[in-house]
Amino acid sequence: MNDLKGKQFFITGATGGIGMVVVEECLKRGAVVFATGRNESVLNAQILSHPDFTFIPADLTNADDLSSLIKLLPPLDGVLFGAGIIDPCPIKFIKQKHIDAIFSINFDSICLLTSLLAQNKLLKDKSSLVFLSSVSSEFPYKGGALYAASKAALEAYAKGIALEFASKGIRANSIRAALVETAMFEKTKNALTTEEIAEVISAYPLGIGAPLDIANAVLFLWSDLSSWMTGSVLNLDGGLLLNSKK
Ligand SMILES: NC(=O)c1ccc[n+]([C@@H]2O[C@H](COP(=O)([O-])OP(=O)(O)OC[C@H]3O[C@@H](n4cnc5c(N)ncnc54)[C@H](OP(=O)(O)O)[C@@H]3O)[C@@H](O)[C@H]2O)c1
Fold first, then answer.
1. Is it the case that residue 237 has pLDDT exceeding 90?
2. Domains along the chain with CATH numbers
3. CA-nearest residue, atom 2 of ligand 1
4. At residue 80, does pLDDT exceed 90?
5. Does residue 2 carry a pLDDT above 70?
């Protein structure tokens, strides 16, 4: 995947467990990286001082931040839509504020950002858009109905982009990840007992994922190796779905 050299990528959620590793892997391969998140302080000095790295802080649910961000981006070869939150809530307690909290970042911000990128001609012909979804879009878990719904909506939206932008050779694919060891996994763990955590982990024939497992798939989807893939949903789950009863 050395064909990323000199190409320009934009990564949302770059301050998160997965996004940060995607940044590192891109920089290693000579790509030029534009990244966003809210909490710049978690990025290490090596990333922040890299000549091919630009960080643009933004709350992607804030319209002013979105329009400022868009002005600082160059034409792009690829985008990773990685920002997202989990925020579990049992069905009977769901209020409008919970729906808004999840959907505003996991879905709305992605639609609005994509529109702005397209309007401002920042998506090069043959660019590749990657959306971070979750196995919960098909196999929800208790307390995660809103999160699962936001990811199901995202996958459907990505397929719409694949169709609309195909004439320019622009591709859009989703990665449907199972549990990956990041801060998000820590939040999931906090809602479970030790026995429940052990049970969850034992359901993974290859163990739970590392951020690099997802980063490798992102780089593949950005590279020419995946040039005939669009509108796809790539399951990345360490074999979890082999244990599914469906
Ligand atoms: N980890 C998993 O098990 C797993 C499994 C399946 C799918 N995914 C998906 O993969 C993506 C990345 O997950 P992760 O594990 O890397 O999560 P993470 O470590 O919790 O990082 C989440 C990222 O989203 C950013 N973010 C959240 N709200 C934002 C907002 N309002 N504006 C701008 N940025 C915002 C965070 O930025 P700040 O921290 O700077 O605010 C952070 O960079 C998410 O979409 C998640 O749903 C994760």
1. yes
2. 2-240 (3.40.50.720)
3. 180
4. yes
5. no
